[in-house]
Amino acid sequence: MGNVIAAAVVSLDGFVADTEDQVGPLFDWYGNGTVEVYGTDPGRPFKVSQASADYINTAWKKVGAVLCGRHLFDLTNGWEGVPPFGEHVVVVTHQPPTDWPFPDAPYTFVSGIEEAVAKAKELAGDRDISLAAGNLTGQALRAGLVDELSYNLVPVIFGTGKSFFGDYAGDQIRLDDPKVIEGDRVTHLHYRVSKG
Known about the structure:
single chain; Dihydrofolate Reductase, subunit A; two-stranded antiparallel ribbon
Protein backbone atom coordinates (compact mmCIF):
# COMPACT_ATOMS: atom_id res chain seq x y z
CA MET A 1 0.00 0.00 0.00
CA GLY A 2 1.35 3.41 -0.93
CA ASN A 3 1.60 6.51 1.24
CA VAL A 4 -0.76 9.47 1.50
CA ILE A 5 1.42 12.50 0.81
CA ALA A 6 0.11 16.04 1.39
CA ALA A 7 1.91 18.08 -1.26
CA ALA A 8 2.11 21.63 -2.59
CA VAL A 9 4.36 24.52 -3.48
CA VAL A 10 4.32 26.94 -0.56
CA SER A 11 5.53 30.39 0.47
CA LEU A 12 7.91 30.84 3.39
CA ASP A 13 4.95 31.83 5.58
CA GLY A 14 2.93 28.75 4.67
CA PHE A 15 0.58 29.80 1.85
CA VAL A 16 -0.19 27.89 -1.36
CA ALA A 17 -1.98 30.86 -2.98
CA ASP A 18 -3.03 34.39 -2.14
CA THR A 19 -6.57 35.29 -1.05
CA GLU A 20 -7.64 35.47 -4.73
CA ASP A 21 -6.26 31.98 -5.51
CA GLN A 22 -3.30 33.42 -7.44
CA VAL A 23 0.05 31.67 -7.00
CA GLY A 24 2.23 34.64 -7.96
CA PRO A 25 5.91 33.62 -7.95
CA LEU A 26 5.26 30.22 -6.33
CA PHE A 27 5.35 28.42 -9.68
CA ASP A 28 8.23 30.39 -11.25
CA TRP A 29 10.66 27.53 -10.57
CA TYR A 30 8.61 25.30 -12.89
CA GLY A 31 10.03 27.29 -15.81
CA ASN A 32 13.46 28.55 -14.71
CA GLY A 33 15.60 25.53 -15.53
CA THR A 34 16.90 23.57 -18.50
CA VAL A 35 15.63 20.07 -17.67
CA GLU A 36 12.18 19.13 -18.99
CA VAL A 37 9.89 17.07 -16.78
CA TYR A 38 6.35 15.92 -17.45
CA GLY A 39 3.39 14.82 -15.41
CA THR A 40 0.72 12.81 -17.20
CA ASP A 41 0.06 15.35 -19.94
CA PRO A 42 2.80 15.33 -22.63
CA GLY A 43 1.61 18.79 -23.68
CA ARG A 44 2.48 20.33 -20.30
CA PRO A 45 6.27 20.34 -19.91
CA PHE A 46 8.03 21.98 -17.00
CA LYS A 47 11.63 23.22 -17.21
CA VAL A 48 13.38 22.96 -13.86
CA SER A 49 16.84 22.54 -12.39
CA GLN A 50 18.45 19.10 -12.43
CA ALA A 51 17.95 18.73 -8.65
CA SER A 52 14.23 19.54 -8.93
CA ALA A 53 13.87 17.24 -11.96
CA ASP A 54 15.42 14.34 -10.06
CA TYR A 55 13.09 14.94 -7.11
CA ILE A 56 9.95 15.37 -9.26
CA ASN A 57 10.66 12.38 -11.49
CA THR A 58 11.16 10.13 -8.48
CA ALA A 59 8.08 11.40 -6.59
CA TRP A 60 5.59 11.67 -9.47
CA LYS A 61 6.33 8.19 -10.83
CA LYS A 62 5.24 6.71 -7.50
CA VAL A 63 1.81 8.42 -7.56
CA GLY A 64 -1.20 6.37 -8.57
CA ALA A 65 -3.93 8.83 -7.57
CA VAL A 66 -4.33 12.54 -6.88
CA LEU A 67 -6.80 13.65 -4.21
CA CYS A 68 -8.17 17.19 -4.36
CA GLY A 69 -11.15 19.27 -3.31
CA ARG A 70 -13.88 20.71 -5.48
CA HIS A 71 -12.35 24.20 -5.28
CA LEU A 72 -9.06 23.12 -6.91
CA PHE A 73 -10.96 20.97 -9.38
CA ASP A 74 -12.97 24.03 -10.44
CA LEU A 75 -9.91 26.31 -10.59
CA THR A 76 -8.10 23.93 -12.95
CA ASN A 77 -11.21 22.65 -14.76
CA GLY A 78 -10.04 19.24 -13.62
CA TRP A 79 -6.83 19.69 -15.61
CA GLU A 80 -8.98 19.31 -18.75
CA GLY A 81 -9.69 15.66 -17.87
CA VAL A 82 -6.00 14.64 -17.67
CA PRO A 83 -4.67 13.89 -14.17
CA PRO A 84 -1.65 16.11 -13.40
CA PHE A 85 0.24 12.92 -12.54
CA GLY A 86 -0.83 9.40 -11.66
CA GLU A 87 -3.73 7.65 -13.36
CA HIS A 88 -6.70 8.74 -11.24
CA VAL A 89 -8.13 11.82 -9.54
CA VAL A 90 -10.47 11.63 -6.56
CA VAL A 91 -12.40 14.84 -5.90
CA VAL A 92 -14.02 15.56 -2.54
CA THR A 93 -17.31 17.34 -3.12
CA HIS A 94 -20.93 17.28 -1.99
CA GLN A 95 -22.02 18.29 -5.50
CA PRO A 96 -20.35 16.40 -8.35
CA PRO A 97 -20.39 18.33 -11.62
CA THR A 98 -23.24 17.52 -13.96
CA ASP A 99 -22.00 19.32 -17.06
CA TRP A 100 -18.23 18.66 -17.02
CA PRO A 101 -17.06 18.14 -20.63
CA PHE A 102 -14.84 15.14 -19.76
CA PRO A 103 -17.25 12.51 -18.39
CA ASP A 104 -14.97 9.59 -19.39
CA ALA A 105 -11.91 10.97 -17.58
CA PRO A 106 -10.53 8.80 -14.72
CA TYR A 107 -12.11 11.01 -12.05
CA THR A 108 -14.17 9.87 -9.06
CA PHE A 109 -16.31 12.20 -6.93
CA VAL A 110 -16.89 11.41 -3.24
CA SER A 111 -18.29 13.39 -0.33
CA GLY A 112 -15.86 13.00 2.59
CA ILE A 113 -12.13 12.82 3.31
CA GLU A 114 -12.14 9.30 4.79
CA GLU A 115 -14.14 7.94 1.85
CA ALA A 116 -11.85 9.83 -0.54
CA VAL A 117 -8.65 8.41 0.95
CA ALA A 118 -10.11 4.89 0.93
CA LYS A 119 -11.14 5.25 -2.73
CA ALA A 120 -7.78 6.77 -3.69
CA LYS A 121 -5.97 3.87 -2.00
CA GLU A 122 -8.16 1.39 -3.88
CA LEU A 123 -7.42 3.10 -7.21
CA ALA A 124 -3.70 3.63 -6.53
CA GLY A 125 -3.03 0.05 -5.42
CA ASP A 126 0.52 -0.11 -4.06
CA ARG A 127 1.36 3.39 -5.35
CA ASP A 128 1.22 6.72 -3.49
CA ILE A 129 -1.64 9.20 -3.18
CA SER A 130 -0.85 12.88 -3.66
CA LEU A 131 -3.17 14.95 -1.48
CA ALA A 132 -3.54 18.58 -2.58
CA ALA A 133 -2.68 20.90 0.30
CA GLY A 134 -5.30 23.16 1.86
CA ASN A 135 -8.47 22.33 3.76
CA LEU A 136 -8.30 18.67 2.72
CA THR A 137 -4.85 18.39 4.27
CA GLY A 138 -6.20 19.81 7.52
CA GLN A 139 -9.08 17.33 7.48
CA ALA A 140 -6.81 14.40 6.65
CA LEU A 141 -4.33 15.36 9.39
CA ARG A 142 -7.14 15.52 11.97
CA ALA A 143 -8.26 12.06 10.86
CA GLY A 144 -4.70 10.64 11.06
CA LEU A 145 -4.65 9.81 7.33
CA VAL A 146 -1.44 11.59 6.24
CA ASP A 147 1.84 9.64 6.05
CA GLU A 148 4.15 12.26 4.54
CA LEU A 149 4.40 15.95 3.63
CA SER A 150 5.99 17.28 0.45
CA TYR A 151 6.59 20.95 1.25
CA ASN A 152 8.12 22.68 -1.78
CA LEU A 153 9.31 25.94 -0.24
CA VAL A 154 9.70 29.06 -2.38
CA PRO A 155 11.58 32.10 -1.01
CA VAL A 156 8.67 34.54 -0.94
CA ILE A 157 6.44 35.87 1.86
CA PHE A 158 2.76 36.30 1.01
CA GLY A 159 1.56 37.76 4.31
CA THR A 160 -1.90 36.29 3.84
CA GLY A 161 -3.55 33.69 1.67
CA LYS A 162 -4.61 30.04 1.50
CA SER A 163 -2.72 27.93 4.03
CA PHE A 164 -0.94 24.66 3.19
CA PHE A 165 -2.71 23.15 6.22
CA GLY A 166 -6.10 24.77 5.59
CA ASP A 167 -7.90 25.48 8.82
CA TYR A 168 -6.09 22.76 10.78
CA ALA A 169 -6.57 23.33 14.48
CA GLY A 170 -5.88 19.86 15.85
CA ASP A 171 -3.23 18.37 18.09
CA GLN A 172 0.47 18.89 17.53
CA ILE A 173 1.91 16.52 14.95
CA ARG A 174 5.57 15.61 15.07
CA LEU A 175 7.48 15.01 11.85
CA ASP A 176 10.69 13.10 11.23
CA ASP A 177 13.75 14.99 10.01
CA PRO A 178 13.26 16.16 6.42
CA LYS A 179 14.86 14.99 3.24
CA VAL A 180 16.13 18.29 1.76
CA ILE A 181 16.77 18.96 -1.92
CA GLU A 182 17.88 22.41 -3.05
CA GLY A 183 16.51 23.44 -6.42
CA ASP A 184 16.65 26.81 -8.14
CA ARG A 185 14.24 29.18 -6.30
CA VAL A 186 12.70 26.22 -4.44
CA THR A 187 13.74 23.92 -1.61
CA HIS A 188 12.04 20.54 -1.58
CA LEU A 189 11.37 19.41 1.99
CA HIS A 190 9.97 15.92 2.38
CA TYR A 191 8.83 14.77 5.83
CA ARG A 192 7.39 11.56 7.24
CA VAL A 193 4.75 11.96 9.93
CA SER A 194 6.21 10.49 13.13
CA LYS A 195 4.35 7.40 14.25
CA GLY A 196 5.84 7.11 17.72
